[in-house]
Amino acid sequence: MQTAHLAALEAKHAALDSQILAEARRPAPDQEVLATLKKRKLQIKQEITAE
After folding, report:
1. Which residues, including other chains, have CB under 8 Å from residue 24's CB and lie 6 or more apart?
2. Is the pTM value of this prediction over 0.85?
3. Neighbours of 44 (CB within 10 A)
4. Distance (Å, rounded) from C-alpha 7 to C-alpha 18?
5. Please, how many CA atoms are within 13 Å of residue 8, restricted to the half-sphere of its CB?
6. Which end of the chain is more exposed for a tag (fewer CB within 10 A), N or C?
7. What is the pLDDT of residue 27?
8. Side-chain-side CA neighbours of residue 30 (13 Å)
9. How many other C-beta atoms can be found within 10 angstroms of the C-beta atom of residue 16?
10. CA dihedral in degrees (44, 45, 46, 49; nearest 10)?
11. What is the mean pLDDT of the chain?
């Protein structure tokens, strides 16, 4: 079951990475949105490494 949880976290991490890239590529990226996405990505990364 832990493997499924880890896979879910990794999928969320990858999805956030895609969202960050998409936002950064916009002509006028919203820095607040980028900061929020990056914080969530970091929190998930910390959960992954804690597993």
Report:
1. 34
2. yes
3. 20
4. 17
5. 5
6. N
7. 96
8. 7
9. 20
10. 120
11. 95
Overall size of the chain counted in residues: 51
Rounded to the nearest 10°, the torsion over CA 39, 13, 50, 34 is: -10
Rounded Cα distance between 34 and 3, Å, is: 29
Distance CA 8, CA 31 (A): 27
Categorize the per-residue pLDDT at 22 as very low, low, confident or very high, splitting at 50, 70 and 90: very high
Task: Return the H-helix or E-strand segment holding 1.
Answer: none
Return the amino acid letter for 12.
K
